[in-house]
Amino acid sequence: MKLIQxxxxxxxxxxxxxxxxxxxxxxxxxxxxxxxxxxxxxFTKQTGIEVEVVFSKKxxxxxxxxxxxxxxxxxxxxxxFSRLMELVDKGLVTPVNxxxxxxxxxxxxRDPDGNWFALTQRVRNIYSSKAHLGKLDITxxxxxxxxxxxxxxxxxxxxxxxxxxxxxxxxxxxxxxTELWLQGVKxxxxxxxxxxxxxxxxxxxxxxxxxxxxxxxxxxxMLVDPKQKPWADAVEINFPNQQDRGAHVxxxxxxxxxxxxxxxxxxxxxxxxxxxxxxxxYATMNMEYPVKADVPxxxxxxxxxxxxxxxxxxxxxxxxxxxxxxxxxKVKFDL
Length: 335
Description:
CATH class of the largest domain: Alpha Beta
Order of helices and strands: HEHEHEHHEEHHHEHHEEHHEHHH
Helix content: 40-55%
CATH superfamily of the largest domain: Periplasmic binding protein-like II
Number of helices: 15
Structural class: alpha/beta
Distance between the termini: 77 Å
Oligomer: single chain
CATH topology of the largest domain: D-Maltodextrin-Binding Protein, domain 2
Largest sheet: 9 strands, mixed
Number of domains: 2
Radius of gyration: 22 Å
Number of strands: 9
Shape: globular
């Protein structure tokens, strides 16, 4: 009789522990917590499910691989497409087939097999010096034109943002032509690739170059930073390839961790992040473009003008990712 009582008591304890554990989700995030905390706070307020964010600039996939089945990660948030692909390639995600996610996120912004879902999109813009060039009707292909010799600044070609751009060029032009293009761009660089996207705009302000590559949301962040606003004021933001295929876009995204301890609750969070309120919050706080079609960009972002985006499905970039890295190495772009 006592044994039965002990077993029943142990069962109640396990049930209680399971219930408590399900009330807290763990997010492994490449995105800094302050960018998503207000959104997660709303999720907790509405559902009662607490969320803990574990932030890292790099190494999340390696950490999850080491942790294996004991990993506490429920959802992974990435700041770019390449890291989504890394998670998939290493078998660290669980496919999700969910009606709400499929309705909220267009097919071109999610994996056909449900391995990942985009949350926001950002344009790979070309910035031009107001003083020397003004507003430009320019293409990515133009960056290899000899007329821009010694005028271009960019961060490392191997950075995920640039790798994705090169992958899109391969998708449109093939490897041989993309290699020639990379050689032309390298020949036009004003300096060895270095720094981040904002540093390229700063270099234009300082007269080191007249053209810079950078993601759209950095422009917004510079405009609202008193110290960096002079950099942004020195350039025009141009949306490339508006006369043909449209501007290249990259995405931030999310995936359900393979060994998520709380899959049901984790999918609820993913649904919430794809919803209109969360997409509106992303658009306002992070100055990115929502992926949900009926959610407009913020007033500041919209002030830069309308643009046509490349219709190439994001998942097709994955098919050319390794080829893009190989070409960047082949032409020794960063050297």
